[in-house]
């Protein structure tokens, strides 16, 4: 991510200022090209002006200095710190965005650290992310805000612990009531948090933030569902046929037994199978005829004592009058897709065992259906 991550502080002596900045560089800095006036006191202290903290990752350097290396960037970050700490505020503090094309786009998180010696018993800080690209910054908003809040919360917890110890030893409220002013108002961030290496840790955190790249959702063509179902026509057949005849026709379709019937009726039954599956050309034949408005069936086979689970689901759904056609269609598509996925899973195993069947929810009465479906799934792969 191309940008600068900075730490701003509202100093009681110098006002809003930048006390730390991290940015990407192609190589380690050898000199500091600008000479901006940099405030310096205990409260503003971080690292020396001629020092830098450097991390390298795949040929890229992440450099932390007292102020940004480029004079124009340092000026923009200073402006952002002023706005963050004294102008731009939310109702409850926290994270905000501001900026424009001239002064850069800024993500700012303002927070306070407890300090028993400070005016108001707290010191104000802000974490700033300055970028030229507004869209990229806002695309990174979720992950950046989550992590800078964690950084701020960590600093607040450490400062609260130090403050609690100090207040236990000597209550500054009582001292101020007696003396009228604190004896030593200026303290650095490392003193407030009790962590001498706090700026090195901030360098590591800020470096990680600069490596963040957002996952951008891009529209893509979703795969077509290989099933087309017209539930109204199927439900009409279910009501028109004797229950036993309909059950035999559906069983034959689902288990790969050739069904001979007029083309329109065959198309309705074949909706119960994924599209483009091959019709059986040999083997048993189930002949379905309609004579004098009455359906009849000729099939040498017989139905098993227990039907495949998919067929049971189909019949229960068609029989359920409360399930409207608008809801019936996705229900049937989902059930057929489920068993297609089960069949595809079985094609990945040369010799499926009972444990696999049990994990997939397959019973013995489902095996006639799966014998046909797994063969069709293998044809799909080829």
What is the overall silhouette? elongated
Q: Portion of residues in helices?
A: 40-55%
CA radius of gyration: 36 Å
Question: Reading side by side through the largest sheet, how are the strands ordered?
Answer: 3-4-2-1-7-6-5
Helix-strand sequence: EEEEHEEEHHHHHHHEHEEHHHH
Count the strands?
10
Major pleated sheet: 7 strands, antiparallel
The number of helical segments is 13
**Average pLDDT across residues?**
86
Q: Which percent band covers the strand fraction?
A: 15-25%
Kindly name the structural category: alpha+beta
**Amino-to-carboxy terminus distance:** 44 Å
> Which regions are unreliable across 5 or more consecutive residues at pLDDT < 50?
none
What labels would you give this structure?
13 helices, 382 residues, single chain, seven-stranded antiparallel sheet, 43% helix, alpha+beta
Describe this structure in words.
- The chain is α+β, with helices and mostly antiparallel strands.
- Helices cover 43% and strands 19% of the residues.
- The chain is built from 13 helices and ten strands.
- Strands 3-4-2-1-7-6-5 form a seven-stranded antiparallel β-sheet. Strands 8-9-10 form a three-stranded mixed β-sheet, covered by helices on one side.
Give the SSE layout.
Elements: E1 4-11, E2 15-25, E3 53-57, E4 60-65, H1 71-87, E5 94-100, E6 104-114, E7 122-131, H2 134-139, H3 141-169, H4 172-179, H5 189-193, H6 198-210, H7 231-240, H8 243-255, E8 258-260, H9 263-270, E9 285-291, E10 294-298, H10 309-319, H11 325-347, H12 354-359, H13 367-381
């Amino acid at each position: 991510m191309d940008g600068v991550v900075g730490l701003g502080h509202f100093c009681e002596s110098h006002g809003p200022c930048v006390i730390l900045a991290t940015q990407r560089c192609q190589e380690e800095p050898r000199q500091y090209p600008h000479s901006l006036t940099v405030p310096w006191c205990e409260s503003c202290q971080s690292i020396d002006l001629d020092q830098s903290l450097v991390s390298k990752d795949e040929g890229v350097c992440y450099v932390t200095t007292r102020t940004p290396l480029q004079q124009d960037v340092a000026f923009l970050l200073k402006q952002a710190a002023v706005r963050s700490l004294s102008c731009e505020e939310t109702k409850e503090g926290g994270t905000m965005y501001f900026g424009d094309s001239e002064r850069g786009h800024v993500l700012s998180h303002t927070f306070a650290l407890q300090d028993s010696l400070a005016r108001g018993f707290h010191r104000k800080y802000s974490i700033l992310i300055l970028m030229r690209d507004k869209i990229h910054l806002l695309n990174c908003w979720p992950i950046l805000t989550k992590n800078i809040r964690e950084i701020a919360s960590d600093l607040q917890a450490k400062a609260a612990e130090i403050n609690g110890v100090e207040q236990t030893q000597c209550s500054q409220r009582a001292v101020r009531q007696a003396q009228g002013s604190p004896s030593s108002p200026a303290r650095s961030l490392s003193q407030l948090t009790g962590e001498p290496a706090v700026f090195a840790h901030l360098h590591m955190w800020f470096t990680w933030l600069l490596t963040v790249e957002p996952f951008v959702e891009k529209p893509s063509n979703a795969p077509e569902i290989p099933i087309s179902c017209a539930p109204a026509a199927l439900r009409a057949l279910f009501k028109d046929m004797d229950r036993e005849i309909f059950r035999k026709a559906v069983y034959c379709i689902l288990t790969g037994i050739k069904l001979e019937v007029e083309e329109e009726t065959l198309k309705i039954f074949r909706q119960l199978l994924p599209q483009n599956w091959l019709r059986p050309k040999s083997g048993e034949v189930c002949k379905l005829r309609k004579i004098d408005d009455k359906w009849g069936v000729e099939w040498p086979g017989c139905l098993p004592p227990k039907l495949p689970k998919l067929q049971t689901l189909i019949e229960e759904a068609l029989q359920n009058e409360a399930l409207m056609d608008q809801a019936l269609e996705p229900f049937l598509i989902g059930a057929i897709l489920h068993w297609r996925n089960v069949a595809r899973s079985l094609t990945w195993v040369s010799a499926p065992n009972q444990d696999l069947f049990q994990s997939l929810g397959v019973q013995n009465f489902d095996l006639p259906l799966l014998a046909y479906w797994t063969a069709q799934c293998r044809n799909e792969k080829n």
